[in-house]
Fold:
Amino acid sequence: MRRALFALALVPMLIASFAFAGEAEIKAAQTGPGSIIQQVLIVGPDGKDYEAVYTLQQRADGSFKITGCSLRASTSVST
Structure:
């Protein structure tokens, strides 16, 4: 699914959230208190699908810090 509208999917009490951008789909899920895994499905300039997975940890001030990121070719089929 692709849409031109963009929304950020980081919410402190996030259970599950979806946001759509022009050439990306964002999914996020809370894995524990103050811990989020965010999956971003991207269509690259070569037309192939890629998946970026970010891990985030909530800091003492309430903000989130990216603690890891991986990028790989996606096995999902874009629509």
Remarks:
- Confidence is low (pLDDT under 50) at residues 1-22.
